[in-house]
Amino acid sequence: MKTQYKTLLFMAVTIGFAIFLSAMTHKNKPNGVKNTINMPQAYENLITYQDGDMAIFETQAVGAKKVENFKKSVRSKTNSRFAIPNGDKSILTYDKSDPTKFFQQNLKEGKLAFNKGMSEYLDNGGRSLPAQEKADEFALTFLNESGLAPANKKELKMMHSGGMRTSKAGSTKQIDVMRTITYGRMLNGVPVYGPSSKIIVHVGNKGEIIGVNSLWKDVKKEKGKTVSKNAMKSAKEAEKEMNLRLATDFGKGTKTEIKDMYLAYYDEGKNYIQPAYYFNISVVMPRVKESPTIKFNYMGVVPALKRTPEPFEVLQQSPEAKKTIKKSSRASSMKDRKKTKRDIE
């Protein structure tokens, strides 16, 4: 039940994104890669957001004052009878009778989250949900009053305003369950992507705040430390690196095409927010036996700095993507072995 709710909680973020991020950066040309490696071209139309140089932003753990303000708002604004623990130690606590009711904090990672419980909403839907624009207002008010909103309000950017629907067994009728508003981050007018720098607010009946999931660490200096152009990889170098990685990750027979390339920031939730190149990639995987050709979009990330301030690690590929890639590669390998056997005979 607990695992199911966590999946539910992140639906607002994952909807609309077909993003599978590669596990590591390959600096050298991979050995034994036989599929075609594309020549860099997308770099010529690099999308940028800033007029000046990029920067590195050092982040800091969530402060005790912010935590207490958050807890105070949760207690007073949500009508929640769930006990909220005191102190600033990392903790995840939930109600045994309803695992969807939980409180979590990890100040080092910038994690503050809670949910008052979803049982009633999942059973009956949202009976008195506010209009979408009004829900946006409720969410922003909570962020400001709870202290979750950054001191520099220009950093906070609404990325998506929607919600969740469900249907009861045996019925095709969709029922609104809640409103969901997702916020991202902008630094000096440049968007920040990655696992962190995100806040999700769930709004329920009559504007009640059902839950919040915040992964956000404040930056120590608003403008960050400017990065010289010599410290940055060129867009052409980054695209070449991405193509080499695609050849390694997806294996023989897969066709990849970089549709767009842009320069933004990456926040993994560690100690720094740093520049990165992002790639919107079209992937076409070969047929496996009788199954059709598989096509999907892939978002690739390459660090923009020649020397990163900390190890640059992106999210692991989803289990579904790994399974598909492995299955396709195995089928391709078996086909090659059969061909070799026929040639010998």
Q: TL;DR of this structure?
A:
The protein has about 350 residues and is α+β, with helices and mostly antiparallel strands.
Please provide the count of β strands.
Answer: 13
Structural class estimated from helices and strands: alpha+beta
Share in β-strands: 25-35%
Largest sheet: 13 strands, mixed
Overall mean pLDDT stands at 81
Number of helices: 7
Radius of gyration: 23 Å
Terminus-to-terminus distance: 57 Å
Order of helices and strands: HHEHEEEHHEEEEEEHEEEH
Uncertain residue ranges:
1-35, 316-322, 331-345
| Count of domains | 2
Give the oligomeric state.
single chain
What coarse outline follows from CA principal-axis ratios? Answer: globular
Into which percent range does the helicity of residues fall? 25-40%
Written overview of the protein:
- The chain is an alpha+beta fold and 345 residues long.
- It has two domains: 17-56 and 225-344, no CATH class; 60-215, 2-Layer Sandwich (TATA-Binding Protein).
- Helix content is 26%, strand content 30%.
- The protein has seven helices and 13 strands.
- The protein has helices spanning 2-9, 11-14, 64-77, 119-124, 132-146, 235-250, 319-344, and strands at 55-58, 91-95, 98-106, 111-116, 156-166, 175-187, 190-193, 198-203, 209-215, 225-226, 255-267, 272-285, 294-303.
- Strands 1, 2, 3, 4, 5, 6, 7, 8, 9, 10, 11, 12 and 13 form a 13-stranded mixed β-sheet that branches.
- The model is unreliable at 1-35, 316-322 and 331-345 (pLDDT under 50).
